[in-house]
């Protein structure tokens, strides 16, 4: 992965905050479960993954990703690093 992970996490948190337009009732960080909390719907998650691919110059393998336990920024980044 070509991007600094902490900087990438910050960019992605900012993306989520822009997407939800201040509608979060709590602080969002890289470990926030974006799917189970309802912060992002499936289309927003695809947009976030696309943003991750663009910012980190990586390919996200949807075939091997298991969202069963929820989706977090940290988990998305770790999946790309595997």
TrEMBL record:
| SUPFAM superfamilies found in the cross-reference section | ACP-like (SSF47336)
Q: Enumerate the InterPro entries for this protein.
A: ACP-like_sf
Name used for this protein in its record? Acyl carrier protein
Native source species: Streptomyces griseochromogenes
